[in-house]
Design goal:
With 393 residues, the protein is α+β, with helices and mostly antiparallel strands. The protein folds into 2 domains: 339 residues, no CATH class; 43 residues, no CATH class. The chain is 54% helix and 6% strand. Helix 5 crosses helix 8 and helix 8 runs antiparallel to helix 10. The chain is elongated.
């Protein structure tokens, strides 16, 4: 399984980002050509060769406008996609003073790898989920739900944040934003063309001529519909292809960061089936650590199942699967939910002491101290030493 910051994976994501942007413009031109073909088929009574040639001429004329429109769409998405996501999810940015527990965990992870600390956001929801967004270092942010904060331990939250940091470091976040842009552009053009076709019958020549249809019009419209369907399907397949493998890599990256595969596994088990964000679009859910929205027998699922992810962690990281977990009672988000450390000479509590008491040692109980000139072995009763309780003679 790939490790956090795998160079080849990052380089591959960068190359695919460039290819996807180029593919975006190609799909837009395909959609424009399909729209022109529909319009000519509805407007001109001609054979199929003539209609294809006229549609090509329309494409050449419309290409500059399509290019400008696509560039504007990309620019708007680049700078304002986070605002759009926050408007949908209700995420709010928090600082250390707002969420000291969460912020400290994230900061420690970033310091351990020399990574700039991304913006931290919290959305009010009982769902258990988290996602990362952003196109560059100045935009990167991690959003977690309040439900996740109240139900997961510190170690589990650390694993979730490590998972999202891996997405950022490996370039997965940028890839997903580009994929969402492609899907948005394609969906917009497909809907626009079908609206013009079914409701208005408007052609690129600006005429309405239902009575002049004939010849190759039927075949031209079938070709146009096929092009629209292929473009829409390709945009959907791109989103599916980007989502699945990246989750395995992010899980592995989190374990490499935290050195705690069991915490990653238990976090996944608690999140499993509890991550649905009310009101969130499918594009937002595809960015989350878990997407409970299922397709047809996992064929259209955007994430591998939790069982498969856990199995991979057990196989490659040596974790242990506790099976499905019940949620613990919700906390206020500031208390420590980790198990107390075992007692020892440097622990927070001695054997039998209350949490937070000074560590037990040979001087911790004045009544048990030997008197001057008397060895510790002659003291009756028991006293605590630096390695646990001892009993005198």
């Amino acid at each position: 399984m790939a490790a956090y910051g795998l160079y080849s994976h990052i380089q591959s994501n960068r190359r695919r980002s460039i290819a996807l942007l180029a593919g975006l413009f190609f799909l837009v031109y395909v959609l424009v050509y399909a729209g022109a073909l529909v319009a000519e088929g509805l407007s001109v009574d001609a054979d199929i060769d003539t209609l294809l040639r006229l549609a090509w001429i329309d494409l050449v004329k419309a290409a500059p406008f399509a290019t400008i429109g696509t560039v504007l769409w990309v620019v708007i998405a680049y700078y304002f996609h986070q605002n759009m996501i926050d408007a949908i999810t209700g995420g709010r940015e928090v600082a250390r003073k707002d969420e000291p527990r969460l912020y400290n965990i994230l900061e420690n992870l970033c310091i351990s790898r020399g990574i700039a600390v991304p913006k931290l956001k919290v959305m009010d929801s009982e769902a258990l989920n988290a996602f990362a967004t952003g196109m560059n270092a100045g935009q990167y942010s991690i959003t977690v739900t309040s439900g996740l904060l109240s139900r997961l331990s510190d170690a589990e939250i650390e694993s979730v944040l490590g998972h999202e940091l891996t997405h950022i470091r490996n370039g997965d976040v940028r890839m997903m934003v580009i994929a969402v842009i492609i899907a948005g552009v394609v969906s917009f053009f497909v809907e626009l063309i079908f609206r013009l076709w079914f409701y208005n019958g408007i052609s690129f020549r600006g005429s309405r001529s239902d009575d002049r249809r004939g010849g190759g019009a039927g075949l031209a419209i079938l070709i146009a519909v096929a092009l629209l369907a292929v473009a829409y399907l390709l945009s959907f397949v791109i989103r599916l292809a980007l989502s699945r493998s990246r989750e395995f890599l992010a899980d592995a990256g989190s374990v490499e960061l935290t050195k705690n595969p069991d915490a990653m596994i238990s976090a996944l088990r608690k999140i499993e089936g509890r991550g649905e964000l009310p009101g969130a679009t499918s594009a937002v859910m595809e960015m989350c650590i878990d997407n409970p929205r299922e397709g047809f027998g996992e064929l259209f699922d955007t994430h591998p199942s939790v069982d498969r992810r856990v199995a991979a962690l057990i196989k490659f990281a040596g974790g242990h699967d506790p099976g499905p977990l019940a949620l613990p009672p919700a906390s206020d988000g500031n208390d420590q939910r980790d198990e107390p450390a075992p007692a020892g000479p440097w622990s927070a509590a001695g054997d039998g002491d209350a949490p937070g008491a000074p560590p037990a040692g040979p001087r911790s109980d004045p009544a048990a101290e030997p008197s001057p000139g008397q060895s510790s072995g002659s003291v009756s009763g028991s006293f605590s030493g630096p390695w646990g309780p001892h009993r005198g003679n």
